[in-house]
Amino acid sequence: MTSISFANAQKDMERLFNHFDTNGDGKISSSELQLIMRTIGEELCSEEAEAMLRYVDSDDDGLLGMEDFIRLVETESSEEEKSMDMTFISFANAQKDMERLFNHFDTNGDGKISSSELQLLMKTIGEELCSEEAEAMLRYVDSDDDGLLGMEDFIRLAEIESSEEEKSNKEDHIVKEAFKLYEMDGKGFITDRSLKRMLSHLGSSRPIEQCRSMIASFDLNGDGVICIEEFRAMMML
């Protein structure tokens, strides 16, 4: 079966080669290589195609013969497999890290994490939880309703926390980028004049007095300007 599979693969490669050898000269040029890569969803500029071609061009004629073409496909396949292997290794390492973390905080060694152990765990990553919060978090992922976290529950909780952190980071980035549009010449705060300028750009021009009143509505410390934290609070309304 191996020899049959290899022979079939060779025939497929030859058909593919001949299909993209548009001028029938038994060679594939860099422009023909671009077309091949486009059909598998990878866009290459002419410089990238030429560099890829040079990498496997055995006779330095600037073209790919059949053997060069096969070697290129094998190289691409090897890179893809390597990428998949690295993904698997990363996943396996992450699993081991999770198991070590779980076992470290499973202080009584019963294969479960209690709400008090969960409090200790969260404290080590800088998040203080009261007992009620820890119990609520535990109930949220407790799959068998025994009031404890097994390994699978623990992994699911970590995934949820990671997802929430990513969401929070994205929201924080949006707030910071929006703040930059309104702030006064990179000084780190929004003034009535910078607010008026931005509103004018947005086609919603307001008199300076109204802008000053808008600033005062969210100026929590009364310094006459809006800092990033005050702006964040304003965006949450």
Automatic annotation (TrEMBL):
Start and end residues of each EF-hand domain: 8-43, 44-79, 93-128, 129-164, 170-205, 206-237
CDD domains attached to this UniProt entry: EFh
Keywords noted in UniProt: Calcium, Metal-binding, Repeat
Highest taxon in the source lineage: Eukaryota
Gene Ontology annotations for the cellular component aspect, listed alphabetically: organelle
Entry keyword Metal-binding: yes
InterPro entries, sorted: EF-hand-dom_pair, EF_Hand_1_Ca_BS, EF_hand_dom, EF_hand_pair_protein_CML-like
Entry protein name: Calcium-binding protein CML19
Gene name tied to this protein: CML19
